[in-house]
Design goal:
Blueprint: H1 4-38, H2 45-87, H3 92-97, H4 100-130
Helix pairs in contact: 1-2, 2-4
């Protein structure tokens, strides 16, 4: 049997993973933007396609990992609810973790992140294939 302490510890680990994932996404997108500005914008369409394909593959791997983390977080909340049902009560931390408002915040964050990620991805597509870059005159 899993204890409330073990579950809440895993929840804190998942929050840490969330922010690590965000920092990795920012790093990947920033590196692509730098590459886009200094190199990719000057290449032909087939190299742009390879670069964007590699970016897409990298982001897809991060998304798959994020979906797994999302599912794990849901299972942790269900485990807390199961412990509450079995033992009759939880600590304040456990109770707050399974409150409906916590689930609403979790869902809103996940939805907002998905929308933002899609918009950033569309922006990168535009900058890679559609935008006409003007070279700066020194």
């Amino acid at each position: 049997m899993v204890t409330e302490a073990e579950v809440t510890y895993q929840i804190t680990i998942m929050m840490d993973m969330f922010f690590t994932g965000i920092s990795i996404i920012f790093t990947v997108i920033s590196a692509y933007l730098v590459g886009l500005y200094w190199f990719i914008r000057h290449t032909r369409w087939h190299l742009k396609t390879v670069a964007f394909g590699f970016l897409s593959f990298t982001l897809a791997l991060i998304v798959v990992n994020g979906i797994g983390a999302f599912r794990h977080m849901l299972s942790l909340n269900r485990a807390l609810a199961d412990i509450q049902e079995r033992e009759g009560s939880l600590s304040i931390i456990g109770t707050m973790a399974i409150e409906p408002v916590a689930g609403d915040i979790f869902d809103a964050t996940a939805t907002g992140m998905a929308i933002l990620a899609f918009l950033i991805y569309l922006g990168l597509f535009y900058l890679t294939f559609v935008h006409r870059w003007h070279d700066q005159q020194a």
